[in-house]
């Protein structure tokens, strides 16, 4: 957004990831990039003052999904657009997945120990994923391997060292959060309407090989 628009961007994160964020992005956008470490439930801003509110890759990891939606909508001024994405429930099979089967254990591990486990096992897991994908069985078997979705979420034709790095980070991200609460798109659409949004639209967005469940609307 900072690279392609003239916006002033106010961004929050609950963790100390804000430090890496500022290191990566702040130096190139001094004066327009305003970064805060804060909870989505206690944002350090006056309500109803933003022209656009965007939340990407966060909501499923918050303790109260509906309250998180309400908190975001409160920040939008009348006529402003609110856009969110999230992990969606696609059917009964959604939680029949390695990350939901193992997370009751991994979320209680120290981050250092979990990262070590992921890093020490990632190479053979990559090999297994590629093997089953080559046999055209990846769609059915890879979901039970404790590794991120290489085929569905990572860029193609990466050099191995870069692929490995992203697999370690994404797999750690799968198993470390305290909360992982996917939702039906219609549920999030209804929450948008409940908290004062108009022209609400929820759908799956496809781009390249990626898929995102997105809901957006205009504040009344």
Tell me what the structure shows.
- This protein has 220 residues and is of the alpha/beta class.
- The chain has helices at 17-25, 65-75, 98-106, 111-134, 138-141, 150-153, 160-175, 185-194, and strands at 9-13, 33-37, 50-55, 76-86, 197-207, 210-219.
- The chain has a 4-stranded mixed beta sheet with strand order 3-4-6-5.
List keywords for this structure.
40% helix; 6 strands; Rossmann fold; globular; four-stranded mixed sheet; 2 domains; alpha/beta; two-stranded parallel sheet; 220 residues
Radius of gyration: 19 Å
User: Helix- and strand-based class?
Assistant: alpha/beta
Q: Determine the N-to-C terminus distance.
A: 24 Å
Biggest sheet descriptor = 4 strands, mixed
**Overall number of strands:** 6
How would the global form be characterised?
Answer: globular
H/E element order: EHEEHEHHHHHHEE
Précis, in short:
The protein is of the alpha/beta class.
Can you lay out the helices and strands and say which pair or pack?
Blueprint: E1 9-13, H1 17-25, E2 33-37, E3 50-55, H2 65-75, E4 76-86, H3 98-106, H4 111-134, H5 138-141, H6 150-153, H7 160-175, H8 185-194, E5 197-207, E6 210-219
Parallel strand pairs: 1-2, 3-4
Antiparallel strand pairs: 4-6, 5-6
Helix pairs in contact: 4-7
